[in-house]
Design goal:
Blueprint (H helix, E strand, L loop, with lengths): L1 H4 L13 E7 L2 E7 L3 H7 L3 H13 L3 H21 L1
Antiparallel strand pairs: 1-2
Length: 85
């Protein structure tokens, strides 16, 4: 279990828009996937292209939730385009 969690297989999967987690309950270990909302992905995106997209929309739209919504649509399309190549 530890070997799998320390390998590249455990890295977040952008193509599936999820990250992997190992939950422990008492002495049980459970592998889980976490699928954040698209708005959350837009809010926490930290690579340069995604950050630029978010900042562009935040500058254009006063309502920050609407700006994140527009950014999320563009960021998700960018991620899916990368995976299709």
């Amino acid at each position: 279990m530890a070997r799998k969690c320390a390998s590249k297989d455990f890295y977040p999967k952008s193509e599936g828009l999820y990250s992997q987690w190992l939950l422990t309950t008492n002495e049980d270990f459970t592998l889980c996937h976490y699928y954040p909302s698209h708005l959350l992905l837009a809010a926490v995106a930290n690579n340069k292209p995604e950050t630029a997209i978010r900042l562009k929309w935040m500058a254009q739209i006063k309502n920050k939730v609407k700006a994140l919504k527009m950014a999320s649509v563009e960021i998700i399309a960018l991620i899916q385009k990368k995976e299709a190549v």
